[in-house]
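tool_call: predict_structure(chain=1)
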Amino acid sequence: MATQAERQVAHIWKRLGFGPTGTDIDNGVAVGPQALIADLLGRPLTTAGEWNFTTGTDWIGQGKFMGQQLRLMGVAANPAQERLAWILQGLVVVGIDGTVYFPDLRDHILRLRANPFGSYKQLLTDVTTMTGMMKYLSGYQNSKYHPNQNYARELMELFSLGPTHPKTGAVNYTETDVAEVARALTGYALNWTTGTIGFNASLFDSGAKTFLGQARGNAGIPQVIDALTTHASWGYHVPRRMFRELVGLEPDAPTLDALAAAYGPTGDMKALVTAIVNLPAFLSDAAIGAKAKTPVELVVGGAKVLGFDLSTVDLSWQLRDLFGQHPFLPPNVSGWPAGQRWLNTAVAMTWCALVQQFLSATRSLAGGAVQKLFTSTSPAGAPTAAARMCGIVELSPATASSLAAFVAGGSWTVDRAAGTLGLALLSPEFSVN
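tool_result:
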C-alpha cells in the first residue's frame, strides 16, 4: 500500500507537471511534498532560446512545433511553467481556423509560455492586439463603421470576469456593456500583405463610452483592461478556474476570497498558484485522483515514462481525428472539455495504439524504461516495478492481478517487459489525474 507521501508526491507531479516517473516519486518522497512544491515553483523560467522550436511556418513546421511543444511538456527543466502555459492555452483560447494561420497561433503560444507566472492583466493587454486573437475573435473587423462584438463578449465572459459573480450570483455585464466595450476596442486593422495588426485612428470610435457601471470617456483598450481589473469579479473568475485546474474540486467562498487577495489587481499568477498549492485542499485525499487525464496528458506523461521523443513524430491526425484534442484546434473559444468526457473507447483505443508505437521505438533504448525493467527486476516484482516506473504508486487488486497474469504467461523477455509497461500505461490508474 502506498504511503501518504507517495500519493501526494505523485499528485504534485500531475498537477504541477504532466506526471511523474518512478525516479520523480523517489526523489519527491526523499525531500517531502512541501519541499517538492517549493522546488517546482522555485525553478527559473525557461526561455525561447532553450525551447528549440522550428522556425518553419508551413504544415511541416506546424507539426514539428507541436511535437516539440508536447516534448517540452514532459522533459523541460521547469515542469510547472509547462503546466501553467498549457492551462492558459485552454483559457485564453486561440485556434487555427480560416483566418488564423499557424504563425499567428505560434506567436500566441510563445507569449503564453514566456511568463505564465507573470501578470494576467499584462497578458490580456498583450494578446488583445496580437494577430492570433485579433483574427480568432474578429477584432480586426471591429471598427466604428462596422462594430463587431465577438472579442468584447469573450473578453468578459471567458477571459476575465465570467457571466456572474461566483459568490453572489450577480450578473457581471449586460448587452449594453458588450456593445460599449466593443466600441472601445475599435481601431485595429489587419494588413493582409504583411500579416500585422496596426492601429488606424480613422477606424476608432472616439466618442464617450459607459460600461461596467461607469462613464469611461474616450476609452480605448487600456481603459477597458483597467475596468476589468477593478470589477468585483476580477479576483474570482480566473482564480476559480485555476483552483479547479490545480486542485480538481470546487472552491468554497472563504477560499475564493483568499485567492482573490493573492491574485490582486494585476492578476499575479505566481502568487495565485502559490496560494492554491499551499492550501490543505491541494494535497487532500479528495483532490488526489479527482480528475481524468486528457489525451494530451496521456501522451505527454506516457512519452516521459518511456523516454519517447515526441518531437520526432507528428501526431496531428491522432490528436485531431481520434482523440479530439489537437493542441492547435480547440473546439471553440471555451477550450477543451474536462472530466469524464475523456473516458471513452475512442481515447482508449487510440492510446493503446500510441503506447505500442512508443514501446516499439524505445524497446532497445539503453537506460530506457523497458531495458531497465527487464534487466533490474525479477518477474515476481515486475508488476509493482512497472507501475512505479509509470508513476503509479497504488494498484487496484484487478490491475495487479492482470499484470501478474501477463508476467506469468511466458518467459521473462524484453518483449514481456515492454508488454508489462504497456499494460501499466493502459491501466485505469494511469488515466487518473
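agent: The two ends are 19 Å apart (CA to CA). Proceeding to next step.
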